[in-house]
Amino acid sequence: EIKYIMSLIFCFYMVTNAHSQFQLHGGAGLNLSNINVGDIPEGLTWIKTEAATNYFLSVRPEFKLSDRWSVGIDVQFSRKGYFQNDSNNNESSDLRIQYFDLLPQVQYKIANPISVYAGLGLGFRLSESFKVADAWQKAENEISTPTDASYLVGLRVFPMNKLSVHLQFAGSLVEFYYLELTNQFGESLDLRTRLQNFQFGVAYRIL
User: Fold this and answer.
1) 37, 190 contact by CB (below 8 A)
2) Over the stretch 166-198, which tens digit does the pLDDT of each residue have?
3) Phi then psi dihedrals of residue 139, to 5 deg
4) Among 151, 94, 147, 141, which Cα is nearest to 124's?
5) What sign has the CA pseudo-torsion 122, 156, 25, 27?
6) Per the count of CB atoms within 10 A, which of 21, 84, 126, 153 is most buried?
7) Three-class SS of residue 84?
8) In whole angstroms, what is the distance from residue 169 CA to residue 165 CA?
9) 95-58-32 Cα angle (round to 5)
């Protein structure tokens, strides 16, 4: 009986200790995204894009390993895209994509209210839309790759109890879309298209 009681006490301790280390955050914020194509050759300036502002919603389960270290995974519904305008033809081809993002990350508290974090992400494209005549229309043939693997780094500040603010940068590790172009001599141009995203968000600790 004593062993049974001690086992119950031990199990209760492990459960309560694990629960005290577990946190759940809900948040939202803004995305500022664009496509990095690199050095654009003369005569192909129509490739150049401008950053677009969109939004995201997130839920982040987190498990504290110690007073300074924690691991978590940010699960986001995230809208990203860019603006593109061909001044020669006075045409635009703005793009907007909705992703389901999984962003596992490791966080380190460098000071009492400030933490830094880094990780890898995997985004699954949910939909893609183009802006035509000031109206967004769902693309019948998507140009972006269906998944987006990325790296991310960020800074998280805790201005008050249960509330946090973060600033994050994420860059694609794979091609955003495949662009095959040639110069005036018929030579293929090696242009990489990588999605880059700055994110500003606010989160509240639910648990």
Assistant:
1) no
2) 999 999 999 887 666 666 666 666 667 889 999
3) -75, 135
4) 147
5) negative
6) 84
7) coil
8) 14
9) 35
